[in-house]
Amino acid sequence: MEKLNVALIGTGFMGKAHSIATAVVPMLFGAPVEIERRVIVDVEEKLAKDAAKNYGFSEYSTNWREVVERPDIDIVDICTPNDTHAAIAIAAAKAGKHVMCEKPMAMSVAEAEEMLAAAKKTGVVTMVSYNYRHTPALQMAKRLIEEGRIGKLLTFRGYYLQDWGADPMAPLSWRFNKAKAGSGTLGDIGTHVIDAARLLVGEVDEVNSIVKTFVPERPLPAGHFFGQRGEASKEMGKVDVDDHALTMIKFTNGVFGTIEVTRNAYGHHNQLGFEIVGTRGTIAFDYQRLNELRVAFADDPKDAFGFRTIYSGPNQPYGDLLWPVAGMGQGYIDIKSIEWYNFLKAIAEKKPAAPNFEDGVQIERIAEAILASGESGAWEKVPR
């Protein structure tokens, strides 16, 4: 079996999540290729050294440029703030490394297109880490749609609601800074919903949006910061990205729908969901109940008609590779592990992964159209 060495860039929460996923992939699935977690990188040496020990990497470094050029590195895993994605991904692709990149793919469409061009030139396998699409219940929804179980699709209603930004005194992390994040709530969590919409319904033709920033300033952080977990100083700083977006969508296949995303909705901790209505039924999913898929079929008997719940288990996608009994449940790391399994499988089979950099570019185009519509107040076409 082929052996590939992984370099992870970034030691924060996502770096930890990816590290656990790469550790457990062989246990859960039997990895399609053998991998070694060779080196982990952070600009601060102590963070890099501690992460190498705690996350199970053989080495650590503070220089990602040197690491991506090393001949013994085969996969570069990018878990850094958004403003560094393009530089790292382009360098890695030019060096012939396969690339896993956290979302959003880039700061802009132009950056994403540069990343895609570099990857196409060397033929490396790429994946953008829209991990929620790998959830077994969501994949079950895709299966039901493809089998025609809910008939012709009519509408899509998607949402991603969080509350960690609702407190106006929460520190101004890099996620509220356009220079670091590119966009706010839309890029951070809205792109997950866009990815789900493309996967389940199809391509987006045009959008009409309301985009708002309800909290225009926040306390500057008092040291290292990450959203609500950081400590606040008494000095205030400007929020220059969106924190709420509401979008109407026209899909190219005639389906229409809406997407709402916010980090300001008290009581909604991490609520990614959708409802898809068809001529023969409805499918509903909520990630806060990620092991459940709610379905209603028009041909159900009248005396038992209504929503029923399908519990994730061995009969759903990937379920046979996880736990033997429905209802035992999967969690966040299981989903990240499925993501890595699919990425490694694509490398082993020398096939494109999904979602790859081409998908990432189109998601960036949709996101930019939403922001443009928020400025113009008009319907904006999505380029293809």
Automatic annotation (TrEMBL):
The keyword Manganese does not apply. Keywords: Oxidoreductase. It comes from Mesorhizobium hungaricum. It holds the Pfam family GFO_IDH_MocA. This is Dehydrogenase. GO terms for molecular function: nucleotide binding; oxidoreductase activity. SUPFAM superfamilies: Glyceraldehyde-3-phosphate dehydrogenase-like, C-terminal domain, NAD(P)-binding Rossmann-fold domains. The keyword Repeat does not apply.
